[in-house]
Amino acid sequence: MKIKDILENNRVTVSFEVFPPKEWAKIADTKKVIDEMVKYNPAFMSVTYGASGTASGYTTEIANAISKGGITPLSHLTCISSGREKISSVLDELEENGVENVLALRGDIPADYDISAQHSFHHACELVDVIRERGGFCIGGACYPETHPESTNRVDDIEKLKYKVDCGLDFLTSQMFFDNEKFYDFREMCEIKGINVPIIAGIMPITNAKQIKRSVELSNCSLPKKFEKIMERFGEKPEVMKQAGIIYATEQIIDLMANGVNNIHIYTMNKPDVAEQIMKGLSVIINE
Ligand code: FAD
């Protein structure tokens, strides 16, 4: 099923992100994680691509496991380190496996990237062009409520986003954020700019102190005072921090829903118990 059709009916959707293993030997373990997660009936499940050097085939393999569990997969695809032939062969592979949804991403610029060399892709919008011209896929893209880390200018970042959407995106998924007000401001700026595709809010449940440090470094997102206080008090106690992080994420989702945000994507970090507890916390609310 195409994700744009899942998002169309105005109902609340909660979807999950998972990542493939770094080595083939661990694929069975990741499939077990998927088997657990599909039980909570997410609207769809996305699987990341290429981060930490994982091969594209692992992404497709995990997308297949998601399909077998009866859930619609969304396959991420990055282009900065790939030529057009490689992208074309990954799209062939997805098509052959019946994967209809792609999150079109640039990817982070590798440390050894040679700016003077001729590259096939510079920005995600070029990948969107390729996928749209090929046809048959529902295409999503990334967006950044607190601006992309490389961008120094918020207005320019939204203008580039508008251009990317107009290249043929069907929906956007946001970077994680911990302060819902940042998301509401961003949503308003998108509306003003005429970005009209659904924007799925990305929520990262923080379950340990190390994770928050890494997440903030990678994503450029700010921490509200309320969250800092939770970290100060519970950060050194793993079980307590886990429960507090799950409750914080659940409260964030409830506030988003109360403010008319119907589509939520949970960065599960491959932890079925975290996904389970959030879904249990929302069990009645989700169907209101
Ligand atoms: P772009 O949309 O190309 O934007 C990158 C920067 O370039 C921005 O500053 C933007 O303002 C600017 N820009 C955009 N278009 C233009 C243009 N035409 N001209 C000039 N400047 C422009 N990474 C992975 O490796 N694997 C994953 O699976 C993955 N999944 C992700 C999922 C989500 C929901 C998110 C939010 C991020 C994900 N990432 C993933 C990280 C992502 O690859 C990085 O954030 C990357 O640095 C930017 O990718 P992008 O697609 O947003 O790039």
Residues in β-strands, percent: 5-15%
Q: How many strands?
A: 8
Encode the helix/strand succession as letters.
Answer: HEHEHEHEHEHEHEHHHEH
Q: Major sheet: size, sense and barrel closure?
A: 8 strands, parallel, barrel
Report, as a whole number of angstroms, the end-to-end distance.
Answer: 24 Å
Gyration radius, rounded: 18 Å
**Uncertain spans:** none
Which strand order do you get reading across the main beta sheet? 1-2-3-4-5-6-7-8
Helix content: 40-55%
Bound small molecules, by name, code or SMILES, are: flavin-adenine dinucleotide
Number of DSSP helices?
Answer: 11
Shape: globular
Estimated structural class: alpha/beta
Rounded mean pLDDT score: 94
Any overview of this molecule?
By secondary structure, the chain is of the alpha/beta class. Helices cover 47% and strands 15% of the residues. An eight-stranded parallel barrel has the order 1-2-3-4-5-6-7-8, surrounded by five helices. Strand 5, helix 6 and strand 6 form a beta-alpha-beta unit. The two termini are 24 Å apart. The model has no long low-confidence stretch (mean pLDDT 94). The structure holds flavin-adenine dinucleotide. The site of flavin-adenine dinucleotide has 25 residues, from strand 3, strand 4, helix 5, helix 6 and strand 6.
